TrEMBL record:
Membrane-spanning residues: 124-157, 169-185, 205-222, 257-280
Subcellular location: Endomembrane system
Organism: Thamnophis sirtalis
Stretch forming the signal peptide: none
InterPro entries: HTTM-like, HTTM_dom, VKG_COase, VKGC_lumenal_dom
Bilayer topology annotation: Multi-pass membrane protein
Major subcellular location class: membrane
Lineage, broadest ranks: Eukaryota, Metazoa, Chordata, Craniata, Vertebrata
Protein's name according to its UniProt entry: Vitamin K-dependent gamma-carboxylase isoform X1
Pfam family, one: VKGC_lumenal_dom
GO MF terms, alphabetically ordered: gamma-glutamyl carboxylase activity; vitamin binding
GO cellular component terms attached to this protein's record: endomembrane system
Span of domain HTTM-like: 64-323
Gene that produces this protein: GGCX
């Protein structure tokens, strides 16, 4: 059983040779009288015959094959429950007044500049509607309407603030979008109590296919993105091996090996293989154990809200769809009356049944309904789009920085870690020439803007409007942002001599004022680590690299009385502003810097 499951048998089915053929297979034409034809390798492995993909008509019939709604109904319930818990937390309902207070002078970063938050009272209404939609999805009550009530506010809030984007928030929106078109209210739902035709009725196979392929893509594309050299060499999450969860591994190996082999190597192997192993009957029990262990660990390692639990809720989708019935059947009879139904599902007009195909005249194609065709079209187009989107950055070049695209829809989870050493915002009055400085992050509630050119442009535009209220005319704004990615040298991300207010930016063109990542210095990371190991715990060290013709100004505070500059490579001029002295350093030389001095 795989992408296209056959008739369900067990949540953890035994090998094919040890279990009876599913009912659909028992109806196949017999090769000999009294003996059923053995299933082909394709049906045993994938759940369908190769001929089912030989034409559009047969593919539509396959994708609309009747399937037990139980597994889908349980997932719908769990997803709605988790989203209801997520809305007060990660969506921000609990601190809405802090984020959208009326009259608050703050710069925002929507995907589209015309998007603006509503007044605070209306934002509470938006979140209330979203919460009611999540509860409605959980209960299967007014199901389609509940999906819309959840989805419309969710995507509005999502597009309203790019600084909160991450992969799992994007995934929640995708799963909700898929459920809108599915018949997930055919089992364990309030709608089923009100409408007998919906109660415990078959659902088309594509309902499961789309969800399974979505989760497969999350795992597999995340694994492909982890083939990045930084991840393979153990630089992406170098300090994670210190966490107490990895203490058992540190009994057998060093912290460095734990980080390289367990954190990075284990994460790479799991993401690359989990989707395939979940599809196959023989490997599914092992895959369920390891992905469950993985997500439980993530819930302790990272502050990522309901994401680990949502992924845990998706894992049973890969089991046989009737697994809830089999599980409920294990309970005592008196207790089953409080649980979902265990009897077989009823027929549905939305499915294509095998006996109907067998009874039609030879050579005559069954006339498929519009709903069946649209379901198949949606399945094919959606899966293709999801495989394409993580690699669509050649179109949206303006969102590419040192990494491709906005973080959140590429499944490059945890591949890049950043640290910021120095951020300076300089403004200049366009009329008087007066120069001043702003605290980094002023008029904003996020720090994500420091890493993205599109957000920097939005931030500069917003600041240029706000500074006019402080008697700064025609302001020019310059950013000097120093970033280290995956333990490299600290270096400039943007050109500090470019006025970002007037700078050109387009979502479809490469950003001209973006400084390149100094890839040729990546090999220095080993030496930088060796230098750090030679220092005591009381000594702080910063490794920086810069481009020719630029300068960095720093003030050495009195707390840093023993400060020195060591030149590892190249040539640099040092100017002590207060004493008006200049020094030229060559490779391997160093200079002692006294406290309370400006150094350039």
């Amino acid at each position: 059983m795989s992408i296209f499951p056959e008739a369900p048998l067990s949540p953890f089915p035994s090998p094919e040779a040890e279990r009876p053929a599913p009912p659909a297979l028992q109806q196949m034409p017999r090769k000999e009288k009294g003996a059923s034809a053995p299933p082909s390798w394709a049906r045993r492995l994938l759940g369908f015959e190769r001929g089912d993909l030989s034409g559009w008509h047969r593919l539509v019939c396959l994708l609309n094959r009747p399937t037990d709604p139980a597994g889908l109904g349980v997932f719908r319930f769990l997803f709605g429950l988790l989203m209801a818990l997520d809305i007060p937390q990660e969506r921000g309902l609990s601190y809405l007044d802090h984020k959208y207070l009326d009259g608050l002078q703050v710069c925002r970063f929507p995907l589209f500049n015309f998007l603006e938050p509503l007044p605070l009272d209306w934002m509470y209404l938006v979140y209330t509607v979203m919460l009611l939609g999540a509860v409605g999805i959980m209960l299967g009550c007014f199901y389609r309407l509940s999906c819309l009530l959840f989805l419309l506010p969710y995507w509005y809030v999502f597009f309203l603030d790019k600084t909160t984007w991450n992969n799992h928030s994007y995934l929640y929106g995708l799963l909700g979008f898929q459920l809108l078109f599915m018949n997930a209210n055919r089992y364990w739902s309030v709608d089923g109590l009100w409408h007998p035709r919906k109660r415990n009725a078959h659902v088309p196979l594509w309902n499961y296919t789309v969800l399974r392929m979505q989760i497969f893509i999350v795992y597999f594309i995340a694994g492909i993105k982890k083939l990045d050299a930084d991840w393979v060499e153990g630089y992406s999450m170098g300090s994670l091996g210190r966490h107490w969860l990895f203490s058992p591994f540190r009994l057998l190996m060093s912290e460095e090996l734990t980080s390289l082999l367990v954190v990075h190597g284990g994460g790479l192997v799991l993401d690359l293989t989990a989707g395939f192993l979940l599809f196959l009957d023989a490997t599914r029990p092992f895959a369920l154990f390891f992905v469950s262990y993985f997500h439980c660990m993530n819930s302790q390692l990272f502050s990522i809200g309901m994401f680990p639990f949502t992924m845990l809720a998706t894992s049973p989708l890969f089991c046989y769809p009737d697994w809830p019935r089999r599980l409920i059947a294990c309970f005592p009879a008196w207790f089953q009356m409080f649980l979902p139904l265990t009897k077989p599902p009823q027929r549905s007009l939305e499915c294509v049944y095998l006996e109907m195909e067998q009874q039609r005249p030879k050579g005559a194609a069954k006339k498929l309904g519009l709903r069946q065709k649209l379901g198949a079209i949606f399945t094919v187009l959606y899966i293709l789009e999801q495989f394409f989107l993580p690699y669509s950055h050649f179109i949206t070049k303006g969102y590419n920085n040192w990494t491709n695209g906005l973080y959140g829809y590429s499944w490059d989870m945890m591949v890049h870690s950043r640290s910021h050493q120095h951020v300076k915002i300089t403004y200049r009055d366009g009329r008087t020439g007066e120069v001043g400085y702003l605290n980094p992050g002023v008029f904003t509630q996020s720090r994500r803007w420091k890493d993205h050119a599109d957000m920097l442009k939005q931030y500069a535009t917003c600041l240029s409007h706000l500074l006019r209220d402080y008697n700064v005319s025609e302001p020019e704004i310059y950013f000097d942002v120093w970033v280290s990615i995956n333990d490299r040298f600290q270096q400039r991300l943007f050109d500090p001599n470019t006025d970002i207010v007037q700078a050109h930016w387009s979502p479809f063109q490469k950003t001209p004022w973006l400084k390149p990542l100094l890839i040729d210095l990546s090999s220095w990371r080993t030496k930088l680590t060796e230098i750090e190991k030679t220092l005591d715990n009381q000594t702080e060290v910063v490794f920086i690299a810069d481009f020719p013709g630029l300068h960095l100004e720093n003030f050495v505070s009195e707390d840093l009385g023993n400060t020195s500059l060591h030149l590892l490579k190249g040539e640099v001029n040092v100017e002590v502003v207060s004493s008006q002295k200049n020094y030229s350093l060559q490779e391997g030389e160093k200079i002692q810097v006294r406290a309370r001095l400006n150094v350039m």
